[in-house]
């Protein structure tokens, strides 16, 4: 009973963080921002109970850095306040996006759409699941891999030949994962865009979306090309497969309509109000989520629509969100540690005489791109890597480059880390579904893919730095 009360209190604090941070983004003033930071700290304190030792270590590191800041920095209060604001932003953004995932899991048409993609015959299956991983990833984040991965494994179990079944599961899972990570560089509903556009002075989603879409196309196209070129050789004849019932238009329509509504609502409000895209997302996504739940009730002829939506909202806040305590603590503390760590590191970098502005901007961007996936192999979350490193670099205006070029480098490295780091949710999920260790799923399944994408994205970053 005590645990349930603490979870409910944590859920209320998470909801308050979302509301207050959204109000701050919409111009409510610094009081709302500080209140959001306070409620985020309360939520993290309540959620700390029951997390594993890794997450507890993150919390301990955060406390150590706070002590170090007050011991060494003349503006320690401002640095800690910025770090708490970063954690509050991440908590609010994650809460908003999770509300959409909660609405999607009860939608029968969305599940049917996923099953239709998983049941495609071999000639179309990789592209279908790459498309599905991308489209579902926009609304479900890592939940897209969970949903499509479970459907893919379920579909593959009907294959009697163990050799074919093994190849099929692996290829389906990496197709889903690569489709998902192809959205990381450009979707406004990803942490890569939300964090990087906050860290890079002068950056915005509207200014970076087109070059970042090129990164997404490179990630998706390279995966399809490698799968086509290096198809596994079978010891026996290839079996024939039936085409699933239904047409593409009919099966994909619910998902495409949802994405269209999201795109029009977010882009429209952003253009009309001038509010940052991430601030618009914090309002639009939860509202659409609860409207979607109401629509499901109406279509299923359930009585008491308002009561059901209110009940679902309370369950989401008090049960579903606290159940994701491990993810919330990891993400929020990564932002907090990265922000405060950058404030602590800045004086040492300056006293050491390191002048990054003397280096060629293209070299800095390529180095930033590669350091994110490399440190990912050591367990560093991309949020932590970006929050720690980007503030130490010269602003784009100082380097003489467009902020969009910096966003291309950061988000591309973020995506590559998501494909290879054994510590990321995407790699752990496909490894779990495929019965492989995360290190094997990240490097053996995606090693060549990462190397090819890395070279192509390096070239694109150099081009972007020169033409933007």
UniProtKB/TrEMBL annotation:
Q: Where are the transmembrane segments?
A: 57-74, 86-106, 126-153, 173-196, 208-230, 255-271, 277-294, 328-350, 356-376, 383-401, 407-431, 443-467
**Keyword match Transmembrane helix:** yes
Query: Superkingdom, according to UniProt?
Result: Bacteria
Keywords assigned = Membrane, Transmembrane, Transmembrane helix
The name on file for this protein is: H+/citrate symporter
């Amino acid at each position: 009973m005590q645990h349930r009360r603490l979870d409910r209190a944590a859920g209320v604090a998470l909801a308050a963080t979302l509301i207050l941070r959204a109000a701050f983004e919409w111009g409510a003033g610094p009081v709302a921002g500080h209140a959001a930071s306070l409620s985020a700290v309360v939520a993290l304190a309540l959620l700390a109970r029951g997390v594993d030792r890794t997450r507890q270590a993150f919390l301990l590191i955060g406390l150590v850095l706070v002590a170090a800041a007050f011991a060494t920095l003349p503006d320690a209060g401002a640095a800690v306040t910025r770090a708490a604001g970063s954690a509050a932003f991440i908590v609010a953004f994650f809460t908003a996006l999770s509300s959409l995932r909660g609405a999607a899991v009860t939608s029968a048409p969305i599940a049917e759409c996923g099953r239709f993609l998983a049941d495609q015959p071999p000639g179309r299956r990789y592209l279908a699941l790459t498309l599905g991983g991308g489209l579902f990833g926009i609304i479900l984040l890592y939940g897209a891999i969970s949903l499509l991965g479970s459907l893919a494994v379920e579909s593959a179990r009907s294959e009697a030949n163990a050799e074919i079944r093994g190849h099929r599961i692996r290829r389906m899972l990496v197709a889903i994962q690569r489709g998902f990570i192809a959205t990381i560089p450009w979707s406004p509903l990803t942490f890569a865009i939300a964090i990087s556009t906050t860290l890079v002075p002068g950056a915005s989603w509207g200014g970076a979306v087109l070059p970042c879409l090129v990164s997404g196309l490179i990630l998706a196209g390279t995966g399809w090309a490698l799968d086509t070129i290096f198809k596994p050789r079978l010891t026996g004849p290839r079996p024939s497969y039936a085409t699933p019932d239904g047409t593409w238009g009919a099966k994909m329509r619910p998902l495409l309509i949802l994405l269209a509504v999201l795109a029009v609502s977010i882009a429209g409000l952003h253009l009309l109000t001038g509010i940052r895209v991430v601030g618009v997302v914090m309002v639009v996504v939860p509202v659409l989520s609860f409207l979607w739940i109401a629509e499901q009730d109406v279509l299923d002829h359930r009585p008491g629509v308002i009561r059901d939506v209110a009940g679902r909202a309370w369950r989401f806040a008090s049960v579903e969100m606290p159940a994701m305590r491990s993810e919330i603590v990891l993400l929020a503390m990564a932002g907090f540690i990265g922000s405060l760590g950058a404030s602590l590191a800045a004086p040492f970098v300056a006293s050491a005489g390191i002048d990054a502005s003397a280096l060629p901007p293209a070299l800095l961007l390529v180095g930033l791109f590669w350091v994110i996936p490399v440190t990912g192999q050591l367990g560093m979350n991309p949020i932590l890597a970006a929050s720690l490193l980007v503030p130490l670099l010269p602003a784009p205006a100082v380097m003489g480059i467009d902020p969009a070029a910096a966003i291309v480098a950061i988000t591309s490295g973020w995506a590559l880390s998501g494909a290879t780091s054994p510590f990321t949710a995407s790699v752990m999920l496909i490894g779990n579904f495929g019965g492989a260790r995360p290190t094997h799923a990240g490097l053996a399944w995606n090693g060549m893919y990462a190397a090819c994408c890395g070279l192509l994205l390096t070239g694109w970053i150099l081009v972007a730095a020169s033409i933007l």
